[in-house]
């Protein structure tokens, strides 16, 4: 017999008429006759927060997502009303709130055009069984509207026509249509009439988003519990929407520069001799590599913070020897703690009551790699502190430089749902709740605690953490990867989409398992994947290891050479990538720009997925098919140089681009100044005594930036960085570069080597800071490269 305890579905409930309105500085309260309150907070002229309660009183206002340093403040705020509505006006937005039903319409303050409008608006369904409401919001979809964002979804970049769920899930060998997967990032941007806005639904319960899937003219989002609590962010530029969201949920500090190098991983390298074999091979073959990973087999019976002494008899010595060879060791740490009274981490967690419990008191027991485990409640500050402290030995004593957090959705084996049951209790930083509310932030809080451990014990060096699961804001603490993908051509395309989508969702420091985790790539697929991977902020080969090898030399010599060539390009571009990271960290600018983000006014970009801009000036398009000699791609408007041939092409069209297996379509924006270091086998191998600047001539103007610092440590926060701004302007017979340097850091090199590309004239004179110089003195070699000692502010090259 099935006992149906669910109360009959009563249907959706709606706010009634507004009864009272109250203003408290930047917080407005609208209360209805049926106890609904809408609280509207004006955070910025372009950022409004909408929060609803149906019981006349709000919950404690607490969010794991919002960064405590998020910008606040507006230039203008005015509230008026007429018979029909309240009118809230800032310098960017006008928001109407209708007195009869609390619905809202939001307009651009300048041209008064409609940006976003409630359809039914806020409504809810009472949940008798679980208490509280299923909270819902629906918006009228605008004509031709497109949608982007939502974290790690593997589907088409443009989300229109689909419905998605956010519930962090261990998704081995997921496919294009698998949903949800590992992350829950309930933020999207919308674009219509060349204007973009974003919605961040800061609700950690299971959430859903429907983009014109159920009804063609409606987008909606809802959650299984909690409050309707969302941020409306206006652009009108999508890049500003993303930056404002990123400002709200935070950015990471700079990673150590080595973390932007190449990483090699496998499940698993062991014993020590195998690890050494791999690292030696990198050096022997001159393939740059900065990090080597230890997957779960380094542990003693998968007990976190232990070592298998048969495989690794002296970890400290090994880690030191690897470090001497330029390798940073990264070790995996999972959340499950093995139930074992002889295991001190377990005993301490038990004694101090740090493990998660079920509703009626028993421990949350689940099977993962070590067997039956208990799981720390990372949502409790005291537990996070304890966890951070556990890293002392691994980081401070042994010298491990990075930690890899896996299985933190949290994943549980052999149970329905593959995670904790809903009744598990969490502290939620003093807001006790069930797993329904804490599930999506469990992994984030684990990564946060791990980050604090590394920050403490690796000090004064910078921490490096990588996590699988994440919620909005997780990017403040850690990098991420896309989980267990597959060695297939389709997955190469998925990896590209996911990296772009994560960047669009505030999480730039991400990359896929290059070559695919499950199954075995052939050499061609691996080479094509490396080509894409070197342009992702995080660049690591990883594989499940239960098939053949997946190191750069695992295929044939031709493949090895191609892989080396592309990893070398990444190492040359390290100052370019680091600058992009600085712009992300400091200015909230995503490191990868999907074409729609790059040029939203060009409607051709709205449904593109393969092409993207890495940093601000490199246009990348991977080859996603076998046996290709090139591909068709869309080149965005403007002038671009072919990276390989320096041929100038005019964008705004789809075109064929040659790209044999040893090449891929890469274009450089005209006017760009691309900084390059010499190839190194690992960051810091060489002292950089000359900086190369590839200057791509443009008739017109273009700005470039170069950020540098000590590549590790925190001195940069005290002003010890070097930020050079280059303003290039060119005409028919002249090229002028102005250089402006900020910051107290002196870069170690003495000279700049300018490679002048695409000059339409023969150089007749060069003026440095208003003094003509003898062409011989500047080592002007006739090949249009010239070496000058740095430190000047104005360079004029005339024909
Ligand atoms: O159940 O640690 O996504 O990267 O190699 C598999 C072993 C557990 C899943 C991760 C993968 C890692 C693997 N882990």
Please give a quick description of this structure.
One of its GO terms (biological process) is carbohydrate metabolic process. Helix content is 18%, strand content 31%.
Structure description:
By secondary structure, the chain is α+β, with helices and mostly antiparallel strands. It folds into 4 domains: 18-140 and 195-235, glycosyl hydrolase (family 31) (Immunoglobulin-like, Sandwich); 257-582, Glycosidases (TIM Barrel, Alpha-Beta Barrel), CATH 3.20.20.80; 592-669, Golgi alpha-mannosidase II (Immunoglobulin-like, Sandwich), CATH 2.60.40.1180; 687-798, Immunoglobulin-like, CATH 2.60.40.1180. It is 18% helix and 31% strand. The chain has a 9-stranded antiparallel beta sheet with strand order 5-6-7-8-9-10-17-16-12, with no helix packed on it. The protein has a 9-stranded parallel beta sheet with strand order 31-30-28-25-21-20-19-33-32. Helix 5 (381-389) packs parallel to helix 7 and helix 9 (523-533) packs parallel to helix 10. The chain is globular. The protein binds ligand MIG. Ligand MIG is lined by residues 267, 295-296, 332, 406-407, 468, 483-484, 517, 542. Ligand MIG binds at residues 267, 295-296, 332, 406-407, 468, 483-484, 517, 542. It holds the Pfam family DUF5110. Belongs to the glycosyl hydrolase 31 family. Residues 38-210 form the Glycoside hydrolase family 31 N-terminal domain.
């Amino acid at each position: 017999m099935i006992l149906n305890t669910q109360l009959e579905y009563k249907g959706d409930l709606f706010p009634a008429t507004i009864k009272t309105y109250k203003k408290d500085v930047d917080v407005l309260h609208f209360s209805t006759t049926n106890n609904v309150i809408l609280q509207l907070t004006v955070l910025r002229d372009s950022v409004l927060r909408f929060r609803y309660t149906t019981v006349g009183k709000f919950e404690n206002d607490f969010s794991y997502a919002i960064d405590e340093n998020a910008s606040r403040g507006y230039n203008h705020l005015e509230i008026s009303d007429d018979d029909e509505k309240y009118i809230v006006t800032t310098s960017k937005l006008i928001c109407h709130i209708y007195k009869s039903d609390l619905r809202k319409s939001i307009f651009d303050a300048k041209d008064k055009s409609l940006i976003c409008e409630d359809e039914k608006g806020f409504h809810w369904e009472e949940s008798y069984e679980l208490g509280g409401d299923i909270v819902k919001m629906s918006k009228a979809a605008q004509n031709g509207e497109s949608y982007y964002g939502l974290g790690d979804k593997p589907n088409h970049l443009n989300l229109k026509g689909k419905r998605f769920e956010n519930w962090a899930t261990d998704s081995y060998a997921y496919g294009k249509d698998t949903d949800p997967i590992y992350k829950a990032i309930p933020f999207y941007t919308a674009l219509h009439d060349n204007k973009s806005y974003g919605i961040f639904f800061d609700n950690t319960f299971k959430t859903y988003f429907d983009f014109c899937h159920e009804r063609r003219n409606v987008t909606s989002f809802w959650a299984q519990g909690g409050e309707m609590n969302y941020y409306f962010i206006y652009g009108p530029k999508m890049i500003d929407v993303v930056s404002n969201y990123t400002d709200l949920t935070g950015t990471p500090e700079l990673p150590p520069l080595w973390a932007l190098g190449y990483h090699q991983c496998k499940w698993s390298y062991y014993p020590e001799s195998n690890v050494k074999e791999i690292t030696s091979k990198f050096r022997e073959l001159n393939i740059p590599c900065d990090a080597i990973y230890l997957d779960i087999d380094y542990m003693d019976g998968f007990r976190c913070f232990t070592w298998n002494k048969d495989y690794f008899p002296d970890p400290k010595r090994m880690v030191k020897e690897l470090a001497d060879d330029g390798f940073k060791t990264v070790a995996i740490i999972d959340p499950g703690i093995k139930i074992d009274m002889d295991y001190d981490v377990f005993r301490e967690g038990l004694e101090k009551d740090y493990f998660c419990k079920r509703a009626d008191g028993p421990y949350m027991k689940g099977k993962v790699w070590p067997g039956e485990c208990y799981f720390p409640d990372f949502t409790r500050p005291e537990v996070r502190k304890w966890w951070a402290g556990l890293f002392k030995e691994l980081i401070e004593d042994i010298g491990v430089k990075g930690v890899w957090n896996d299985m933190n959705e949290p994943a549980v084996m052999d149970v329905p749902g593959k995670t904790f049951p809903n009744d598990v209790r969490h502290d939620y930083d003093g807001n006790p709740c069930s797993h329904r509310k804490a599930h999506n932030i469990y992994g984030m809080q684990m990564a946060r605690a791990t980050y604090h451990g590394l920050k403490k014990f690796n000090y004064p060096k910078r921490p490096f953490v990588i996590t699988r699961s994440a919620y909005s804001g997780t990017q403040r603490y850690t990098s991420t990867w896309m989980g267990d993908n597959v060695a297939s051509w389709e997955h190469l395309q998925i990896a590209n989409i996911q990296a772009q989508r994560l960047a669009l969702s505030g999480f730039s420091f991400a990359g896929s398992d290059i070559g695919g985790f499950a199954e075995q790539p052939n050499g061609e697929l691996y080479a094509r994947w490396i080509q894409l991977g070197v342009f992702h902020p995080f660049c690591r080969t990883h594989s499940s290891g239960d098939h053949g090898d997946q190191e750069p030399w695992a295929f044939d010599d031709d493949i090895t050479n191609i892989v080396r060539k592309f990893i070398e390009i990444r190492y040359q571009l390290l100052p370019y990538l680091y600058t992009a990271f600085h712009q992300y960290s400091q200015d909230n600018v995503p490191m990868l720009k999907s074409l729609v983000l790059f040029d939203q006014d060009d409607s051709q970009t709205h449904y593109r997925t393969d092409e993207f801009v890495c940093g601000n000036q490199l246009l990348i398009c991977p080859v996603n098919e076998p046996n290709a000699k090139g591909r068709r791609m869309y080149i965005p408007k403007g002038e671009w140089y072919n990276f390989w041939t320096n041929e100038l092409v005019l964008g705004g069209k789809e075109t064929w681009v040659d790209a044999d297996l040893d090449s891929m379509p890469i274009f450089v924006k005209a006017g760009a100044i691309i900084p390059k270091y010499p190839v190194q086998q690992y960051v810091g191998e060489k002292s950089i005594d000359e900086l190369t600047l590839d200057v791509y001539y443009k008739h017109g103007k273009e700005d470039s930036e170069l950020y540098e610092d000590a590549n590790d440590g925190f001195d940069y926060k005290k002003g010890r960085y070097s930020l050079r701004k280059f303003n290039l302007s060119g005409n028919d017979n002249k090229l002028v570069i102005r250089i402006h340097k900020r910051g107290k850091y002196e870069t170690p090199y003495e000279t700049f080597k300018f490679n002048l590309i695409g000059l339409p004239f023969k150089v007749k004179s060069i003026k440095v800071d208003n003094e003509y110089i003898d062409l011989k003195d500047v080592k002007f070699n006739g090949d249009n490269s010239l070496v000058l000692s740095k430190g000047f502010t104005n360079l004029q090259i005339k024909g």
